[in-house]
Specification:
- With 281 residues, the protein is an alpha+beta fold.
- Helices cover 25% and strands 20% of the residues.
- It has 7 helices and 10 strands.
- The strands form 3 sheets. A 4-stranded antiparallel sheet has the order 1-6-7-5. Strands 2-3-4-8 form a 4-stranded antiparallel sheet.
- Strand 3 and strand 4 form a beta hairpin.
- Helix 1 runs parallel beside helix 7 and helix 6 packs across helix 7.
- The radius of gyration is 21 Å and the shape is elongated.
- The chain starts with a helix and ends in a 12-residue tail after the last strand.
- The structure holds zinc ion.
- The site of zinc ion has 7 residues, from loops.
């Protein structure tokens, strides 16, 4: 699943290529989008902006029309120069937004909807997004308060709830808990204010560091040694994610992994650095 920083980078690239351009071609395999295009054509409109909010991407067109997409597990947006060969097969194409110089192509996006600014403001899951970790005006206190409001949820699960903070995915979840020495399976109610602050600010720090990195999609949170080659396994640049059985980079204890939560997403942690808190008798 793409994390928020990946979507952020994709939106920035699309925005650079498309903002201000006139749409010369619109194609879609999705009947509900085609119907809107048939009655109120997308072709001829200007692209105002492409932005990311958490894991959502919005393309705003002139005339109060907005395309909202969510990548979930499988979707991606590519940008090509007109007539350039696509890197994915045509049958995976769902949407093409063509301009004079560029084609933006959405492959296998599972969620794609047209909205007006009014309908978008009440769109479930979008309108209720928590503070966006990559937003300029990210509200750290609101994010902390949102976490506190879910005392019975396990920490690593809570970090994935997009109504608490938006943008964080499964890789960062484990990395952030490790960085703050918080056991990912403890309930939010067991956290101190200091730990909550650490989780929120570290989540933002990791996301921002990766959103400005233009070297690729690999997530980097561990920079204990400088990498000189991009051929290395991206997991070598992480503290715990994907490192089950390997020694903790802090204490040498083997990293553990276990499925967690409703969606059984795998969590990685160091049982020594992130000890569970025991009630004292
Ligand atoms: Zn450790």
């Amino acid at each position: 699943m793409p994390e928020g920083d990946t979507i952020f980078r994709a939106a920035r690239t699309l925005n650079k290529a498309l903002a201000g351009q006139t749409i010369t071609r619109f194609e879609t395999q999705l009947p509900h989008l085609q119907r809107v295009h048939d009655t109120t054509p997308v072709t001829g409109r200007t692209i105002e902006s492409v932005t990311a909010s958490g894991k959502w991407m919005t393309v705003r067109f002139s005339g109060n029309l907005i395309l909202l997409t969510h990548m979930l597990m499988s979707g991606s947006w590519h940008i090509y120069q007109t007539a350039e060969k696509w890197q994915r097969p045509r049958y995976d194409m769902r949407i093409v937004i063509g301009t004079e110089k560029f084609d933006a192509v959405a492959f296998k996006v599972p969620v794609a909807e047209f909205h007006t600014s009014e309908s978008l403001a009440s769109r479930q899951g979008y309108a209720t997004l928590g503070p966006d970790l990559l937003a300029e005006d990210f509200d750290e206190r609101q994010a902390a308060a949102n976490l506190r409001a879910e005392p019975d949820v396990e920490v690593a699960e809570a970090l994935l709830h997009q109504n608490i903070v938006s943008g964080l995915g499964n890789v960062y979840k484990s990395e952030v808990c490790f960085a703050c020495r918080v056991n990912p399976f403890c309930k939010v109610s067991a956290l101190t204010d200091e730990e909550i602050r650490c989780l929120v600010s570290t989540a933002r720090k990791f996301m921002k560091a990766n959103a400005t990195d233009t070297s690729g999609d690999g997530i980097t949170t561990y920079t204990g040694f400088r990498r000189t080659t991009h051929r290395a396994d991206p997991r070598q640049r992480l503290w715990v994610y994907g490192r089950a059985g390997q020694p903790c980079r802090r204490c040498g204890t083997p990293i553990r992994s276990r499925k967690q939560g409703r969606d059984a997403r795998v969590t990685f942690w160091c049982p020594e650095c992130q000890r569970e808190k025991f009630t004292e008798f």
